[in-house]
Amino acid sequence: MKLPLIFFIVLAVIALLASRQFIKQRREEALNDASPVRTLQVEVKAKREFPAPNRRSRQREVIPVEEMRYEAWFQPLYGAGDIKLTLQADDYHAIDKGARGELTVKGTRFIAFTPDRLETP
After folding, report:
1. What is the mean pLDDT of residues 82-91?
2. Could you give the C-alpha distances from 31 to 40, 48, 120, in angstroms and in order?
3. For the whole model, what pTM was predicted?
């Protein structure tokens, strides 16, 4: 029995899209590795915690412990647009919305956030 041509076309498209995504991720990693470490004075504009989209809809029904993803938006105090970064759980929970401090990044990778110390008399 001969498989229809459309089946092979669909497989080719899937393979093409998967390889394109793989190459894009590798290029972004190489760019991050080559980027210098930058330090910026920022304010934490927003935070977001959400379930990682790695399950199908039926699998989402009963999940006792779900993997979470964490994002934070930082607004530089001296110009430039907002910076959206993906964080680890420990870093995410240590940052408060509205906090000001020093953000350290390497390319699009979060390195650290050090809040400003409030001076008390």
Report:
1. 91
2. 19, 25, 42
3. 0.69
